Amino acid sequence: MIAESSSGLYCEAGGFHIDPWLPVERAVVTHAHSDHASPGSRRYLCAEPARAVMERRLPEAAIDTLPYGASTRIGDVTVSFHPAGHILGSAQVRVEHRGEVWVVSGDYKRAADPTCTPFEPVRCHTFITEATFGLPIYTWDAPLTVVDDIAAWWRGNRAEGHPSVLFCYVLGKAQRILAELRDRADAPIHLHGAMCALTDAYRDAGVAMAPAERISESMRGKALAQSLVLAPLSARGTVWMRRLPNASVAFASGLMRVRGVRRQRAFDRGFALSDHADWPSMLATIEETGASRVLVTHGWSDALARYLSETRGLETGTIRTQYEGEIGELREAADAAASDVEPRT
Ligand SMILES: [Zn+2]
Ligand SMILES: [Zn+2]
Q1: Surrounding residues of ion ligand 2, Cβ less than 5 A
Q2: Ligand 2 centroid vs 280 CA: distance in angstroms?
Q3: Stated pTM of the model
């Protein structure tokens, strides 16, 4: 019912694509991350709570929305969105055709996140799951423990007069951190300019977060010594960082679970805070769907597919996609680290 095509996942009976990476007639989109919501399609359909961020990401696009749980007919199939717990408005796509049900997970997580509706398992025959962190080494601590660690690191830096620069994804992770710090921020939080519009979209959507101000051009050195600064990894190794000469730098990502990665990328600290499911919750989710067939997209798809067929006896397969997730962030980090050595002029 849903198959890979050169533009992305394609549902022939419905005549639409899901998260296409090339422009198509009709795109059904799980969430607003750029590898899932790419520009140029004629029409978009996403979950209603995703509208604010989708509009910032794709200002030219014709966007239709549907509340979570409501269904609509497209071609010969029935389509509905169900919360994925990944970022604001993120959804699993349920597609039903003559009694057969497929669910495309998009990106998802099971950990608590104050910025979005929690994941809801959906029963299906075939489940298409992401596997960004589909290896047993990836298990997450409770988010509140990680946030405590971030707060303590920030406090420690303040005591020594160093600004704290926390690199994180501009959409989802930054706002989640701001929301978690809402009742604990006792010094200023500043944002890199690239994060402001999306953070405003979250505030407009009613997500409660700690106050945070855009860093102005003139702000540098001492003026930021007490601050927590949230910035995208792409800012690393650019002239923008010169305003923060003695900052402690950290990265908030599931990738930080692996010590070697942290050392190799020369972060002072790593916080394993992820918007993707860890290994145990991925397995639990697959079981909860009741699916007898599981198709695996980006990340460690081969490893997860093999594990499921060998230990659970499920019918499995992998689907090649161009979704990157936090793996893409690491590539970004590697590029930035290279430019640390040879600064671009
Ligand atoms: Zn995503
Ligand atoms: Zn993804």
Answers
A1: 107, 323, 325
A2: 18
A3: 0.93
